[in-house]
From TrEMBL:
Native organism: Certhia brachydactyla (short-toed tree-creeper)
Coiled-coil region: none
Every KANL3/Tex30 alpha/beta hydrolase-like domain range: 27-209
Gene, per the UniProt record: Tex30
Name this polypeptide is given: TEX30 protein
Organism domain of life: Eukaryota
InterPro entries: AB_hydrolase_fold, KANL3/Tex30_Abhydrolase, NSL3/Tex30
SUPFAM superfamilies: alpha/beta-Hydrolases (SSF53474)
Length: 221
């Protein structure tokens, strides 16, 4: 289902992947610095989640400014929260690369404000860009350290923007419940020599869904 979400004086293009049964939970998904919501990984994940009963709303927001992308993400969260078509108990924010930075930023801002009503259940970071390539001294970890809801990282062990030991170091300092799933030998684009893209995506999709299921249940036992 294609929708246009009002954002300032513009609209954000978005697509709902809707499960057959009425969903209780949703995932809002966005892309990295390049590309858009039709990036193959996002399309694959959205279809997988919808086929397993999770509503997925993916959207395009062009713009390389994280603050701008964060604002857009917040708008989409509000839109889904107020939607009459889908009454959800909670939503998980997810993004790829720069999109996951924007998602983390939304959650860290909400967790500091008084408007944290528990609607956002957790965060999924696909290929979180912890640092620029070869610039490991400057870590983009400030938002991660403020987050309290559960966080899943899915990263390639050969990601040139997220060195394994550095991410493990940051994660050990986080106060939130967290998990890292390493895709062996994958780079930032999740390409692995000797494996097809579909094969890698199947691994990622299954991991994300299993984690969502655990954490959606945990919140509502």
């Amino acid at each position: 289902v294609k929708v246009k979400i009002p954002f300032g004086n513009k609209y954000l293009d978005a697509i709902f992947s809707v499960p057959e049964k009425k969903p209780t939970y949703g995932v809002i998904l966005t892309h990295g610095a390049g590309g858009d919501m039709n990036f193959p990984h996002l399309v694959s994940l959205a279809a997988y989640l919808a086929s397993h009963g999770v509503l997925c709303l993916r959207f395009t927001c062009k713009g390389l400014n994280v603050a701008y992308r964060t604002k857009a993400f917040k708008t989409v969260v509000e839109y889904l929260k107020l939607s009459d078509d889908y009454k959800l108990s909670g939503v998980f924010l997810a993004g790829r690369s720069m999109g996951s930075r924007a998602a983390a930023s939304v959650i860290s801002q909400l967790s500091q404000g008084d408007d944290d009503d528990g609607f956002i259940q957790g965060l999924v970071c696909l290929s979180y860009p912890l640092h620029r390539p070869k610039l490991q001294s400057k870590l983009r970890d400030e938002d991660l350290l403020l987050i309290r809801c559960p966080v899943l990282f899915v990263s390639g062990s050969a990601d040139e923007m997220c060195e394994k030991q550095l991410l493990e170091g940051v994660v050990s300092k986080m106060k939130a419940p967290k998990k890292i799933h390493w895709i062996d030998k994958a780079n930032h684009g999740m390409a692995v020599k000797g494996r097809t893209a579909n094969d890698v995506m199947e691994e990622i999709n299954a991991q994300v869904f299993a984690w969502l299921r655990e954490n959606a249940q945990l919140q509502h036992k």
